[in-house]
């Protein structure tokens, strides 16, 4: 029997509502692999590896793992550290730690930047003839990773955004007073999550207009769109991406660029929705309210999608199996098999192709006027937040605690000496 | 047998997550009263009465009422219309409608302003010798109605605010980077809901500092409080009420009062948290993020408190019983019998005493430094969001729909001719 190799798991980048469920899936899979010895986690991603801050994941209280589906943030700690090509010292440090701890399987959970780090390490280990399987575990609410049908984390954010938007819209419709609600939705360069807000319509109260960063934003067209709607209905709901850009390349949020300062001398920088609300107020003399869900969009575990939780668990499980099978330089990806019933398979895709690529919303999923999504997008997105039993429903009951507050997983993270 | 009188129910002011459950409770109670004939609702509160816009509540599809606990906003329509003492024309109009429809029981669901309207109508009907029982049904997320232990709607907003705050705080603690989170919480003049954010601590991730409008706000003390904490921990969480005031009487949000204008020429008016975030950034050179949950605080039915739903139903039921018993000029109120186990009774209190009074947080429930609540407040507040079966748990299952989105009640509101 070959000597066992140890496994290291780490989280990187912005959290999603389901990344901690992936930790659980990876741990369970690793425990059942005869080839895996110790199961470590790095504290604060690759930064923790560089600092030698590892801990024994398998030694943690196992009861805590059942709480992972309710636990937002990065339970292992995250980082924004990105390995630079020329940072030879970093690579050497990592290799030293890996050798010292006999780490032969490395799983890195993250988005585009993290997949780049993952890929660089894979190539470095190969050059150095250090045998280690490096596998990426996908995760991003932005849904902009290529070669995977979607990324874990996206669906839960869609469910959060569409639920909150529906509820707030119902509230705003309580009065006869005309009102415009402007919701600002997260998404670095891609409009997936903003587009996902369209699902709120299934509750009867969704956005009337959706503006995505995939299309150049025009203030004139925006004003005309809203004016046209005002002739039809008193309450207008608009979803705008935080990263909308004008034809001259400037972000909409940079429109406050006159660099005005508040009473403390600090530069005021409102978001896109706040700026556009001011624009509508000035031009339409209507009540306008800008709403930004902020970090709630990625932290609202209590609204996590059952399908998303299920897939976050299983994609990490699959990633461990890939690593143990001797594959390296791959990302575990999701491949949709069918939509009715919704079914996915897991597959390995090349990190070379994933790293730093960015998946935008296909042009055919945006309407001609550039202010809405098409039915094709809805068909793509809806099954991801489904609660149907046949859709890979996650079976950890999302039960309330006795005191009515959420109960989070807690890991001791006793660092290895 | 005496002639039956008809009953009219209406909603007023800002919605809460549970006001529609009160409609259900009132309807069920009214149906079982032999003295009640038709059961009407006004569309958009007293405004609807003035406009003669009434509809038959009992004729609505009964299946819709089971969805009330999931339905935010005002399902009957709300208004901000306040009866003025001298508006004799309004009173006469209302009396005419009441006579014409033989309305002998009027239940008005609202906060302070609405109780004032309710009280004025009660006295007017008495003067005019028009026999009609006028009863107020309490409702406000601000929890500032006097003579009731608490107001329906408050607890659900507390559960929403504390849950979201806990989840977002866990997220922010994922990184090693020091960060200050500033949450702005609703509350017109009282700090109840801001204080309620303290419950997030029971999840392990709550606010470090809480600033209430009951205490004069000092920028200097605020800065010192935060600096002291920075010496102890990297992540600092602060809850501020939207209605904080400085010693000179100005609202904190008025600190942007240099009347600067954005690029559209519109006056910029950030909230208290945004202003205070700018102040901390300038003075502490730390990462600071201001978060405002906005209307989510009162519309998040998916986070409604079970106790709150239960009480919203039963307080309305009690109000109907009061009306039918011949009492008028009262508000149905909650009286806490015991805290362990948590038990309430319902009682009638005088609208004369309730109308326009405002209940602030007692001084003894705020700590000496004026930056936190005491344990007494926690003991008061915690049972209200409890999920214990013995605490008057509401038995409508908060089940998810198949598509993962909320499903709202829909009333046809066919206006009476």
TrEMBL record, chains A, B:
Activity modulation: Non-allosteric.
Transferase in keyword set: yes
Residues reported to bind Mg(2+): 112
Catalyzed chemical reaction(s): beta-D-fructose 6-phosphate + diphosphate = beta-D-fructose 1,6-bisphosphate + phosphate + H(+)
Site positions per UniProt: Important for catalytic activity and substrate specificity: 113
Top enzyme category: transferase
Residues at the catalytic site: 142
Record-listed E.C. numbers: 2.7.1.90
Matches recorded under InterPro entries: ATP_PFK, PFKA, Phosphofructokinase_dom, PKF_sf, PPi-PFK
Signal peptide: none
Binding-site positions, substrate: 140-142, 186-188, 242
The protein's required cofactors: Mg(2+)
Coiled-coil ranges per UniProt: none
This protein's UniProt keywords: Cytoplasm, Glycolysis, Kinase, Magnesium, Metal-binding, Transferase
Superkingdom in the source lineage: Bacteria
Domain Phosphofructokinase: 9-298
Subcellular localization(s) per the UniProt record: Cytoplasm
Sites annotated Important for catalytic activity: 139
Annotated pathway: Carbohydrate degradation; glycolysis; D-glyceraldehyde 3-phosphate and glycerone phosphate from D-glucose: step 3/4
UniProt record similarity statement: Belongs to the phosphofructokinase type A (PFKA) family. PPi-dependent PFK group II subfamily. Clade 'B2' sub-subfamily.
Subunit and partners: Homodimer.
Role of this protein: Catalyzes the phosphorylation of D-fructose 6-phosphate, the first committing step of glycolysis. Uses inorganic phosphate (PPi) as phosphoryl donor instead of ATP like common ATP-dependent phosphofructokinases (ATP-PFKs), which renders the reaction reversible, and can thus function both in glycolysis and gluconeogenesis. Consistently, PPi-PFK can replace the enzymes of both the forward (ATP-PFK) and reverse (fructose-bisphosphatase (FBPase)) reactions.
Name of the protein: Pyrophosphate--fructose 6-phosphate 1-phosphotransferase
Source organism phylogeny: Bacteria, Bacillati, Bacillota, Clostridia, Eubacteriales
């Amino acid at each position: 029997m070959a000597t066992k190799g140890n496994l290291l798991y780490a989280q990187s980048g912005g959290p999603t509502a389901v990344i901690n469920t992936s930790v659980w899936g990876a741990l369970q899979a690793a425990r059942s692999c005869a080839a895996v010895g110790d199961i470590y986690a790095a504290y604060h991603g690759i930064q923790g590896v560089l600092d030698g801050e590892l801990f024994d994941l398998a030694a943690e209280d196992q009861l805590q793992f059942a709480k992972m589906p309710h636990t937002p943030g990065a339970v292992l700690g995250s980082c924004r550290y990105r390995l630079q090509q020329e940072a030879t010292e970093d690579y050497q440090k990592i290799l030293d730690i890996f050798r010292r701890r006999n780490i032969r399987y490395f799983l890195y959970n993250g988005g585009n930047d993290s997949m780049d780090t993952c890929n660089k390490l894979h190539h470095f280990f190969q050059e150095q003839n250090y045998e280690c399987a490096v596998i990426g575990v996908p995760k991003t609410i932005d849904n902009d990773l290529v070669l995977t049908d979607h990324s874990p984390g996206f669906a839960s954010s869609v469910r959060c955004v569409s639920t909150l938007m529906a509820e707030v819209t119902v509230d705003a419709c309580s009065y006869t007073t005309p009102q415009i609600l402007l919701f600002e939705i997260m998404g670095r360069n891609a409009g997936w999550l903003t587009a996902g807000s369209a699902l709120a319509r299934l509750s009867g109260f969704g956005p009337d207009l959706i503006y995505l960063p995939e299309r150049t934003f025009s203030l004139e067209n925006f004003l005309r769109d809203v004016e046209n709607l005002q002739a039809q209905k008193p309450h207008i709901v608009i979803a705008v991406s935080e990263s909308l850009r004008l034809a001259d390349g400037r972000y909409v949020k940079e429109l406050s660029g006159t660099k005005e300062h508040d009473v403390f001398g600090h530069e005021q920088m409102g978001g896109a929705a706040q700026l556009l609300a001011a624009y509508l107020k000035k031009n339409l003399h209507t009540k306008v309210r800008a709403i930004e869900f902020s970090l709630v969009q990625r932290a609202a575990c209590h609204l996590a999608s059952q399908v998303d939780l299920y897939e976050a668990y299983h994609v990490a499980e699959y990633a461990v199996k890939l690593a143990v099978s001797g594959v390296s330089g791959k990302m575990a990806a999701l491949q949709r098999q069918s939509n009715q019933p919704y079914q996915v398979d897991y597959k390995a895709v090349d990190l070379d192709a994933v790293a730093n690529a960015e998946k935008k919303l296909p042009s055919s999923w945006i309407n001609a006027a550039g202010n809405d999504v098409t039915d094709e997008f809805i068909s793509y997105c809806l099954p991801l937040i489904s609660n149907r039993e046949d859709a890979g429903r996650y079976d950890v009951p999302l039960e309330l605690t006795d005191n009515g507050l959420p109960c989070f997983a807690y890991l001791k993270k006793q660092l290895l000496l």
